[in-house]
Specification:
- The chain contains 13 helices and four strands.
- It has helices spanning 2-18, 29-39, 43-59, 63-70, 76-88, 92-99, 105-118, 122-129, 139-152, 156-169, 174-186, 201-215, 242-252; strands spanning 191-198, 220-226, 229-239, 259-262.
- The longest helix is centred in the first third of the chain and has 17 residues, at 2-18.
- The protein is α+β, with helices and mostly antiparallel strands.
- The protein has a four-stranded antiparallel β-sheet with strand order 2-3-1-4, covered by helices on one side.
- Among the domains are: 2-101, Serine Threonine Protein Phosphatase 5, Tetratricopeptide repeat (Alpha Horseshoe); 191-262, Alpha-Beta Plaits (2-Layer Sandwich).
Amino acid sequence: MNGIHLIFSIILLLSFACLGAEPPKVNTEVEYWKRAYSINDDQDEKEVLACKIGKYYYSRGLYKSAIKYLDKTTESTCFLLKIKTLVVLGRLDEAFDLVEKLKPDWLKSIIIGDICFKKGKYQDAYTFYRLVPEDAVYKPFVLLKEAECLSLLGETDEAQQIYSNLVGDFEGTFVAEVAKRRLKEEYREHYYIQLGAFSTEEAAISFKEKLEKKKGIKLDIVSKTEGERTLYCVRYGDFPSRAGAENKAKEIFQDTIFLIGWE
């Protein structure tokens, strides 16, 4: 296929020369592909170019531009990428329709799991991830997803065990590094939800009392001094994991600015 592309490129350049015109100035390789796509009458070539352009945009996080071209190709190498792009864009029903055509079934389970995760249905996502067999090539990555679901569901001990196993079983790999980072970030002894920080205790007390009345909960004020500056921080809770703190924050403080801290 690369030979065809080369021949096509030469023909394109010779065409401009015969017409006495300068070849178009192209800033990047993808702009050249797009120009070639727009003037090419061969449907097979157009689909190959659309696939390349879609992959290029996806690799750079430009998902709306990616799907514009992935929708124009039936290349098998772009089929899974199209589903992933639709999931990222939140077009979940379209993604689900395409998933039904996937083989093998374990690959279908991964994508359906990703769709459920995107919808916030973590228990359903976990159920589908668990259907992926142990010998599947993507199983280590799926285990990361399983652990993330468990963490978000409050099953922190099980999630922590999976991360620990991944660190030991796949030492030196990308999966192990991700697991190691999540263990370090998510499983400290004390996590809290911080809702505000004030330069005076009076302002902190006023904010605390108003929010307690609004939410019907008990908040704490903790003072922190750095150099000559003291801040009075309004906090809520004491959680064993970041995921637990984040879930509670989204449940109670969805209309309030917050951050997750730890000690």
